[in-house]
Amino acid sequence: MRHHYDVLIIGGGVVGNAIARELSRFRITAAVLEKEPDVGLETSCRNSGVLHSGINYKAGTLRAKLSVRGNAMMDKLCAELKVKIKRIGKLTTALDEDELPGIKRLMDQGTANGVPGLEVLDNAAMRKIQPGVEGIAAVWSPTSAIISPYGLTISLAENAHANGVEYFLRHKVSSITKKADGSFTVGTENGASFSAHVVVNASGLSSGIISELAGVNEGNHGDSLKIWPCRGEYYVLDKRLDGTIKTLIYPVPGAKDAGLGIHLTPTVDGNILIGPSANYIPVNTPEDYKVTATVLEDLRREGHKLLPELKMSDFIRNFAGNRPKRTPPEVGGNGDFIIEEADGVRGFVNLVGIESPGLTSAPAIAEMVRDIIANHLDLVEKKDFIAERPGFAGHFCDLPKEEQERLVKENPEYGEIICRCEKITKKEIRDAIENPLGARSMVSIKYRARNGMGRCQGGFCTPRIVRMLRDEYGFAPDDYIFREAGSNLFTGNVREGADK
To answer: Which residues of 388-399 are buried (b: 16+ CB within 10 A; e: fewer)?
Structure first.
C-alpha cells in the first residue's frame, strides 16, 4: 500500500471530499485521512441540507463569492453523482416594519454578490408561493435549494475513490512535520505514517488543532485560527406532512446571530426539519452532539407556531450538529472562511472556519484549493476521468414502475423490502454494505441506503440487516458498530442461536 502521495487531505467531510474529487481529475496521487470510521459523520451530514443563494453574506467575502459559485455548480455536479436536489427557492420574511431594514440589507448584499432572480415580495405575492405564510415582505431567492447532505458527501468520496484517490478511515492525525526537502510527514494515532508534497487541512471542527500540529498559529493576516463549536439542534418530522412546506421560509437574521434562525426546512426525501438552534458549547467538546430538553421544547413550540396542524406523533427523531465557528460567543455573527497557503509553511493549505455555507460552497472551494495546489504540482488532466457515478438518483422506490419491474427481473433482491417505512430493498442494503470505502457501521449503511430513517426508526429493518451481516458477511457480535469505535450495537453475553 502506498504511503507517499502528492497531496494528503485531512478530513473526509463534504469539503475534503469535494477537493479529493476535483484533484482526481489529474494525474497526481492523493489520499484522504479521516479519523472516523466513515466519511461525513460530523458537520457535513448534521445540517439542514440547504443550498444557499448567497444573500446572507457580506459582499467581497469568500463566503459570498464561493456560495454563489458553488450554488451554480450544483445541478451539473448532482446530475453526475446521482444526488437528489430540488430547486424550491426561499422566502426570507419580515414580520413587521422593524425588520424591513433587514430585507433591504439582504437585497443589497445579494445584488452585490450577483445572486440571480432576487425579488422583494409583498404578502400577496408570498402566499402565491407558500399559502398561509406570514409577514409583510420577503426576499425571494429562487436559486436556493435542498439536497441530501450525506448523499452528496458520500457520492463525492466514492467518485473520488473510483478515480484513484485512496481513503484511510479511522486515521486520526497526531503529528505533522515539515522535512528539509520541503515535503511533509503526517503521523496518525494508530501508528501509520504518510508523506506528501502538499497537505490540505479540511478537518472542520478540528481545523484549529490541525493548524497547530503544522506549526501554523495564526492566519496570513493575523487571524485567529481557534474554533468555537456552536451546536444546532433539530427535530425531524414524519412524512405525513410532505408537501405542507413548498419552499424554504427563513426569518430575517440579526447581524450578530450565530445562525440564520429557527425555521422549517423540507428535505429531498419528504421529511421536514425544525431548527436549528444556535448555542455555543465548550471548545474542548467539539464533537458533543447531545440534544437538550430545553432546546427541544423550544423547537416543538416554534414548530407548532409555524405549522399549527403538527401532532406530537409527527416528531419522529431529533439530532444535533456543530458549526466550526471562528467567532466567540461574546462577538457572535460569523467570521469569513480562511482558505490559504500558510505563510512560512509552504505546501500547507489551510481551511479554517468552514461553517455554513460550506455545503453550498464545497465545489467552489475545491476549485480554489486546486488552483493553490497548481503552484506546487503540474496538474495534467486525465483522459479517463470518470465523471459519473453509477446507479440512479434517490432510491428504488422513486423509480417509475416499469424501471422497477425491469430491475427486479435482473436482480430479485430489488423485490425484497428490508425497510418498510422507506421502502428500501435488500439490493440497496447490499450495495450500502459493499460500498467502495469499506465503511460498515450501522450509520454508514443508513446514510447510503436510507434504512431506519422512517417512522419506526429502524425497528423493523435493523434485525433484518443484523441477520444479513451475520449470515452473509460473517459478522460476529463485536463487529456491529453503530457509528464510531466503542458504539457497539451488542454488549454483554450473546446466546448463540437466540434469534432462530
So the answer is: ebeeebbbbeeb
Q: Hey, how many other C-beta atoms are within 10 angstroms of the C-beta on 89?
A: 18
List CB contacts of 296: < 8 A, sequence separation 6 or more.
233, 235, 318
SS3 407: helix
Burial of 267 (0-12, 13-18, 19+ CB in 10 A): buried
Helix or strand run (H / E) with residue 291? none
Question: Closest Cα partner for 26 from 6, 2, 1, 4?
Answer: 6
Using only C-alpha atoms, what is the Rg of the chain?
Answer: 23
Q: Name the residues annotated as catalytic.
A: 52
Buried b (16+ CB within 10 A) or exposed e, 112-133: ebebeebeebeeeebeebbeeb
CA distances from 115 to 56, 67, 141, 337 (A): 11, 10, 8, 19
The domains of the chain are located at 1-84+146-227+328-394, 85-145+229-325, 397-479
Q: What is the pLDDT of residues 233-257, one digit of tens each?
A: 999 999 999 999 999 999 888 655 5
Q: What CATH number labels 1-84+146-227+328-394?
A: 3.50.50.60
pLDDT in tens, 95-132: 999 999 999 999 999 999 999 999 999 999 999 999 98
pTM of the model: 0.95
* Residue 74 per-residue DSSP state: H
Q: How far apart are CA 135 and CA 225, in angstroms?
A: 39
* Per CATH, domain 85-145+229-325 is 3.30.9.10: yes
